[in-house]
Amino acid sequence: MYNELYVYNIKKDTWTKVDIPGPPPRRCAHQTVVVPQGGGQLWVFGGEFASPDGEQFYHYKDLWVLHLATKTWEQVRSAGGPSGRSGHRMVAWKRQLILFGGFHESTRDYIYYNDVHSFNLDTFVWSKLSPSGTGPTPRSGCQMSITPQGSIVIYGGYSKQRVKKDVDRGTQHSDMFLLKPEDGGEGKWTWTRISPSGVKPTPRSGFSVAMTPNHQVLLFGGVCDKEEEESLEGMFFNDLYFYDAARNRWFLGQLKGPKSEKRKRRRARAEDHEGARELERGAASAPEPLEVVKEVVAEDGTVVTIKQVLTAPGSAGCPPPEEEDGAVEAGPRVEPCPRSSAMLAIKHGLLYVYGGMFEAGDRQVTLNDLYCLDFHKMEEWKVLVEMDAGKPEWGGAAELAT
């Protein structure tokens, strides 16, 4: 577990470790939110700690703030806050932090939550909200995001329940809800179940969410657990989906593919006609996917083989380019490997994806690679930092829905 703080400089393409005295204790599966108050603040709530030997494990319920202007940590003590938990979600809504869901696990039992809490950034007071209507069932690892209309969207997530002694059954949720403030009612909210149209994400949890420049919600990756009585296998994703709250519609994010040498129609006419026909036949045929195999060696000597199928540009359902602006596309498409719990950030119209984790057999591999995608072009992923294959981090058998 770590409690380190790093800053990535976009212009210099460099990571820098920032050492600030008195940070929060080491943890994972917490939530952080950045707000503009006080020159910029980073708020941190909850999460979990597990010692390497497995002897210590507990959930946090503490609240911390990093003052970005002065680079100082402060623990904010306020009664009446949420209980200790992991896998919850938290967003900034006006001058409040709104927190939903999560789970708590002990050696004897576990519990999933669907409660809603508000923290006032002016008074530093916690309040438990009691929205009217039927809301989501208890869950963790879901989507929680603000719509341009001022409501809060909850989508998907994961929960499990005991079906008989020592046997649990997991559920991948794919329902969607709107948490809306009531007009004229201070602190009063209403739950509404919604059914968006369009191409919806497949059931999953542990995906990552960010807000695009045109106020759409971006969803990336995640995992869908396939559970048997004695085994658990996760299917990981690296796809992109966009949710448009104004139209209540999902869209599948598709890349156009990189363009190399542009060939105008007038130039094609001057070429050999037979060569032009060959080019057309080649563009019409479906490109073969390329399987890339990487081997990651752990410090204990264990070798994990990572297989990733890279599709050639244009094979993800995008229409071929018009002849006038046609392009010869070369090489397979580079993209982040499937993963859950990655970190997303959008700056200057660019999407940044850092790290995450995936499973390889009974091992969990933690990634440290960094990718970038230009929303204006939607052509191709760019690798800013390659995965360090020599020193992977290994996780234990922790729940994936955090």
Q: Can you summarize this structure?
A:
This is Kelch domain containing 4. The protein is mostly beta strands. Helices cover 4% and strands 48% of the residues.
Question: SSE layout and pairings?
Answer:
Layout: E1 6-9, E2 14-17, E3 31-35, E4 41-50, E5 57-67, E6 72-75, E7 89-93, E8 96-105, E9 110-120, E10 126-129, E11 143-146, E12 152-164, E13 167-181, E14 189-194, E15 197-198, E16 208-211, E17 217-227, E18 232-244, E19 249-253, H1 265-270, H2 273-284, E20 290-297, E21 303-310, E22 343-347, E23 350-360, E24 363-374, E25 381-385, E26 393-395
Parallel strand pairs: 15-19
Antiparallel strand pairs: 1-2, 3-4, 4-5, 5-6, 7-8, 8-9, 9-10, 11-12, 12-13, 13-14, 16-17, 17-18, 18-19, 20-21, 22-23, 23-24, 24-25, 24-26
Please characterize this protein's 3D structure.
It is a single chain. The protein is mainly beta and 402 residues long. 4% of the residues lie in helices and 48% in strands. The protein contains two helices and 26 strands. A five-stranded mixed β-sheet has the order 15-19-18-17-16, with no helix packed on it. Strands 22, 23, 24, 25 and 26 form a five-stranded antiparallel β-sheet that branches. A four-stranded antiparallel β-sheet has the order 3-4-5-6, with no helix packed on it. The chain is globular, with a radius of gyration of 23 Å. 29% of the residues are buried. Residues 261-285, 314-334 are annotated as: Disordered. This is Kelch domain containing 4. InterPro entries: Kelch-typ_b-propeller (IPR015915), Kelch_domain_protein (IPR052588).
